[in-house]
Design brief:
CATH topology of the largest domain: Rossmann fold
Oligomer: single chain
Structural class: alpha/beta
CATH class of the largest domain: Alpha Beta
Largest sheet: 6 strands, parallel
Number of domains: 2
Bound molecules: D-glutamic acid
Strand order of the largest sheet: 4-3-1-2-9-10
Helix content: 40-55%
Shape: globular
CATH architecture of the largest domain: 3-Layer(aba) Sandwich
Strand content: 15-25%
Radius of gyration: 18 Å
Number of strands: 10
Distance between the termini: 25 Å
C-alpha cells in the first residue's frame, strides 16, 4: 500500500506540523494543502470552515492521501466530527495543549492563545473544563495574529506588541505555561521566548500530533516506507507565488521548515 499523509490548514500554520512529521519520519510522503483562498479561518463561522475542511480533505484523498491531518485548531474545532463521519480513512485533528500545560504548571496558572473561532468554540470550552482541575486557565483570542504570520511576520514590532499586550495580564498573575492553540503561532516561539520571563514555558501541539499521526497509521497497517527523505509537496488554493513568498519570508526569519516544493495549480 502506497501511504501518504495529507495535511491541511488555512495557510502556512500547519507547516509546523508537517515539519514535526517530516522530522520524525523523513521518508513518509506528505502532501500539504493551504487553503489560502479562504484564509483566515479564525473569523469564519464553524459551518463555513467545516465545508472547506471537507473539500480540502477530499482533494488530498484524490491526490493519494491515506491519512488526513487537520493541522489547524480552528478547523479541528469546527469539522473533526464531520470529517470522521464522512471520510473512510483515518483523520487526526488537533487541540490546544491545555492538558499538558495544566499538568506542567507549578503556579497553577495557564494561558491559551488561539483564534477567535477556537476560543468561542465548544471544543475548547469542553477541553478546559475537563482538564483545568485546580488551575486557572485563561483563553485569549488573538484576532489578526495568524494574519501577520501568514504575511511572513514572526518578529515584527506589530507581532511583539500584540503578544506583549495579550500576555502582560497573565504574566502579572503568575502564568508559567502558555499553550499555543493555533498552528500559525508555532512560528512565534522564538519571539515569545524573548518576550516572556524565563520561568514561562511555551507549549505547542505540533510534535504530539505528528506522533499521533504515526501511531494512527501504524494501527491502520500503514507502514512508513523505507527510503530517502521526501520533500513535502505543497499546494495552495490561492495564489501560489504569494504562498511561496511567505514561506521564503518565514525561512529568512529562521523558521524551522521541512524540505518542500510548492506545486501549482490546485483544482
Ligand atoms: N492555523 C489555524 C489554527 O490552527 C488558524 C489560522 C486562521 O485563522 O486561519 O487555528
Amino acid at each position: 500500500m502506497q501511504v501518504r499523509a495529507g495535511i491541511f490548514d488555512s495557510g502556512v500554520g500547519g507547516l509546523t506540523v508537517a515539519e514535526a512529521l517530516h522530522r520524525l519520519a523523513p521518508s513518509l510522503p506528505i502532501s500539504y494543502l493551504a487553503d489560502t483562498a479562504f484564509f483566515p479561518y479564525g473569523n469564519r463561522t464553524a459551518e463555513e470552515v467545516a465545508d472547506r475542511a471537507l473539500v480540502l480533505a477530499r482533494t488530498l484523498i484524490a491526490g493519494g492521501a491515506t491519512v488526513i491531518v487537520v493541522a489547524c485548531n480552528t478547523a479541528s474545532s469546527a469539522a473533526l466530527e464531520r470529517l470522521r463521519a464522512e471520510l473512510t480513512i483515518p483523520v487526526v485533528g488537533m487541540e490546544p495543549p491545555v492538558k499538558p500545560a495544566v499538568e506542567r504548571s507549578r503556579s497553577r496558572t495557564v494561558a491559551v492563545l488561539a483564534t477567535t473561532g477556537t476560543v468561542s468554540g465548544a471544543r475548547l470550552a469542553r477541553l478546559t473544563e475537563r482538564h483545568s482541575g485546580d488551575a486557572t486557565v485563561t483563553t485569549i483570542a488573538m484576532p489578526g495574529l495568524a494574519d501577520l504570520v501568514e504575511a511572513g511576520e514572526t518578529a515584527s514590532e506589530r507581532v511583539r506588541t500584540m503578544l506583549s499586550d495579550a500576555l502582560r495580564g497573565p504574566v502579572a498573575e503568575g502564568v508559567d505555561e502558555v499553550a499555543l492553540g493555533c498552528t500559525h503561532y508555532g512560528f512565534l516561539r522564538p519571539t515569545l521566548a524573548a518576550l516572556l520571563p524565563a520561568s514561562v514555558e511555551v507549549l505547542d501541539a505540533a510534535e504530539p500530533v505528528a506522533r499521533r499521526v504515526l501511531a494512527v497509521m501504524a494501527e491502520a497497517g500503514q507502514d512508513v516506507p523505507a527510503g530517502p527523505p521526501q520533500e513535502v509537496l505543497c499546494y495552495a488554493t490561492g495564489d501560489a507565488d504569494s504562498f511561496e513568498a511567505t514561506i521564503q519570508r518565514l525561512r529568512d526569519g529562521g523558521a524551522a521548515l521541512p524540505p518542500l516544493r510548492v506545486l501549482r495549480p490546485v483544482a
